[in-house]
Amino acid sequence: MLKQMLQTDWDRLANERLADPVNELEQSPYDTKLGLDMANDAKKVVAGSLNIEAFHKKYHSSLLGEFGNLFTQEPVKSDGSSSLKWGMVIDLQKCVGCDSCTVACKAENRTPPGISYNVVLEEEIGEFPNVAKVNLPMPCMHCDNPPCVQVCPVRATFKLDNGIVTIDNDRCIGCRYCIIACPYGARSYDFGESYEEEMLSFNDVTSPEYGIERGKREDRKTPIGTVRKCNFCLHRLERGEEPACVETCIGDARFFGNLNDPNSTVSKLANSPRAFRLKSESGAGPNVIYLK
Amino acid sequence: MALHAKTTALPPIGNFSKQFKWWIGILLVLFAVGGYFIIERLVLGLDTTNLSSITPWGAWIAFYIFFVGLSAGSFLLSTLIFVFGMEQYERVGKMALFTAIVCMIVALTFVLMDLGRPDRFMNALIHWNVISILAWEIHFYLVYITLLVTELYIAMREDLVRLRTHDTWRGMIARWLTFKNSKITEETKKRDHRWMKILGTVGIPLAILGVHGGTGALFAVVGARGTWNSGLFPLIFVISAMVSGTALLLAIYVIKQKVTKKPIDQEMVISLGKMMVAFLFIDLLMQFYEYLVGVYGLEDGHLQSMAIQMGGPYSWSFWGVQMFLGAVVPIFLVFYKKTAKNMHAILIAAILVVIGIIGVRFNIVVPSQIPPVFEGRPFGDYYPTLNEWMVSIGIGAMGLLIFTIGDRLLPLEESVDTTELEG
Ligand code: SF4
Ligand code: SF4
Asked: Would you call A70 exposed, middle or buried from its count of C-beta atoms within 10 A (0-12, 13-18, 19+)?
């Protein structure tokens, strides 16, 4: 008997589980017809017969009318720029200065001696007995107008659509102009040093940055002779993980998310009265925001 | 070492003075020693230097801007002759152009040494970032060198045509460089003259704005480094280029005349000396304002790097080399009655000015990179390593070799008839 069931029969059976769309939508306070139309068109988008921009264009104004302030999704821009801008918020009240982030970063990116994408600056302020210790963790700020990108003669360092400032180590000529120009000291030149003596097999992996497998770390082989810096763990973001420093932070002082989404945790924190940015007068527009 | 082969293969006739042989010998040795260190640097990378991520630019960058400055200065001096018709300096005209070319070759060699990946230097032409000053500079340098070579060729053309008939090495080079039917007529004279003027005129903005002003702008646009970040900075570069260019040509001229035992055009030397000091005064004035504005700006990083420049571990370079040797002594020598007309004294003044400008270049590049860009990060600590010095000496020797050989083989002096293969 089972063999006589056709594809459509199976589908009908499965569909019995589904709620009746009209019924279901009637129960919500919002427009039923809009919901049905959108669902239909969404199927077309999935099937590829309608493009996503047209979809957004068609519904954007009705959605705004229907949901008002609750509707926050930006329409996809046709020029290809995205509504995603990765940013980080670091709560200095929560930071205990343990340097775990620095260690996690070194382990994740296997940076050689002399290079650390993340540092924690420490300072004691005040006079005895009224003293306090200030810790300032600093990765690359992934600036809005990155001075490092302005000066690079070969366009080896550039800003991605998602806001991350990256380096193409296969193009970089190692002129170090970007190190000169970065107002935060976020960049380092790879002199080719290695931990091989302290740590066997350090050289086995060159640099896992940007998800590129380069094999053994050897003389004159990329990225040696080029400039390196924090890339917000782009390779981890691509597989849905937070940057290593954020994941590790023992005080949960670091937050990571989309600064263009007004509902994200980072956006809300970035708008809090405690928020400030380093060297905000420089015009670089850092996307690492601190809470004091 | 192709250069080596060329020199030793020169005329079999023993018409080289002992001095000349020593000179070439010493240069070859220096070049060979430098070459060893250059190879070491290429094999081991920048680990051979004392550079770090805090102080990423060092001696080689200082020498690079020094030589670009010399080149721009020499070229601008040549335009005084070829464009503005100051015939009194005619004697150094072609020499000025040739010096400008050699200095550019030396400057670019320094840049190449400084790149982390010299093998990728072509990227600067392939992937041009139009908002990067450095990218513009590289393009300007290439156009500038082409212009210099063309201009020098036209300036020498008549002499080369005349040399064609000579049965010497010079004659042979001349035959290579000119066409069989090249001739000198009133018409070609006019044409050459016009082209010299056109090229010189195009070259002036190119040298000022493109080559050396641009090199200054490369530093001036960096907002992160207070001491460089001013509009006056590129102008200071141009003026100090004029200072060093004039001084260098003055020195070359006097030394050459002395070595070849030919009469020195005293009037020209004295007037060039005065010109050099005039440029030096403008330079000092601009620097004074630069520091004055800096101090009143009260900006932390800026004050810190000025303090390091004038009172820190490099203050000997600022007060000793840049100010005392490079300014006070030469000004004194050029103006003091007893030395003002003495060729030796003016020669010493010119050499001191050139050395002073090397100090200026170091004082621009190094002290500004000692205080950290961000408060709390470590301070830099830079002093060139043996490798950096030896590579620099090697490249310098290479420049002098090219210069000496070129001077032998090309008619760089005002007229061939009086300068036939001297001893
Ligand atoms: S912090 Fe420095 S390296 Fe990072 S984007 Fe800004 S200028 Fe570039
Ligand atoms: S060092 Fe590399 S990334 Fe930095 S400016 Fe030079 S070429 Fe660009």
From this structure: exposed
